[in-house]
Amino acid sequence: MALGIIGGTGLYDFAAREKNTAPKCLIVDTPYGPAQLRQMQYEGQPLYFVARHGPDHSIPPHRVNYRANIMALHQLGCTCILATNAVGSLRDQMAPGHLVIPHDYLDFTKCRPLTFFDRRTDLPLHRDQTAPYCPQLREFMISAAHAHAVPVHSRGVYICTEGPRFETVAEIAMFTQWGADIVGMTGVPEVVLARELDIRYATVCIVSNYAAGITGKPLTEAEVEKVMAERLPTIHELLQAVLNRLQP
Ligand code: HPA
């Protein structure tokens, strides 16, 4: 079984922290273009790491080639993907620094390819989204998070916006009424595409800020990056704990 990790803002490298293997840079050709990955072994299993925004954070959310990333992991035999996302919070109780393991999503993206099924295909087109995030991977993430002194929310509705701008105050007020708990720019279509290829997928969201209008203060990229840097060691440990649970 091969495993994949997709690191969001703040997580640009997983391999460097693994002392037991030397990571290899890999470019994988897919029908959607090339994907850049790092290949390593984790406890004897192949593990592939994708920095969603590129190793130097040069790819903005609306320009990420989600299809190439997911297809590359599929071509390499990945059956599970663990992801991370920086998010804004729409709820008082989900404070900056907290972790949220979403169970559902709302799609407010506008102009990105959302499917592999835009060509003729024999696969079923209409995939069930009753549990878009793998319940077992979510459970592993929740219990790994509980081992740390970091507040974790075991459910949450993630709304994905197109970006790269932050949301307006009116948008956040509307999303809150819709039932969203956290907002980010990259969760969709990743989860959708993984499901289309029958890859189990779950994500740990790191709350980096309250969303627009919640505190009245303007949002800055710097505050997002600061919280992500603080939470980085915890995220590494959490991902490793989940990988250990996934050993065959
Ligand atoms: N909005 C959208 N994406 C984000 C935010 C936010 O407030 N914080 C981190 N990623």
Entry keywords:
248 residues; 27% helix; Rossmann fold; binds hypoxanthine; 5 helices; alpha/beta
From the coordinates shown, what is the CATH architecture?
Answer: 3-Layer(aba) Sandwich
What fold name stands as the CATH topology?
Rossmann fold
Portion of residues in helices?
Answer: 25-40%
Low-confidence stretches: none
Ends apart, CA distance between termini: 8 Å
Shape: globular
Element pattern in H and E: EEEEHEEEHEEHEHEH
Q: Strand pairing plus helix content: what structural class?
A: alpha/beta
What is the arithmetic mean of pLDDT? Answer: 92
Overall structural domain count:
1
Write down the CATH class. Alpha Beta
Proportion of residues in extended strands? 25-35%
Number of helices: 5
What is the CATH homologous superfamily assignment? Nucleoside phosphorylase domain
Task: Give the number of DSSP strands.
Answer: 11
List the helices and strands and how they pair.
Elements: E1 2-7, E2 24-30, E3 33-42, E4 45-51, H1 66-75, E5 78-89, E6 99-100, E7 104-108, H2 135-146, E8 152-153, E9 157-161, H3 169-178, E10 182-184, H4 187-196, E11 200-210, H5 221-245
Parallel strand pairs: 1-4, 1-5, 5-11, 6-8, 7-9, 9-10
Antiparallel strand pairs: 2-3, 3-4, 5-10, 6-11
The structure holds hypoxanthine.
Hypoxanthine (HPA) binds near residues 86, 87, 166, 184 and 211.
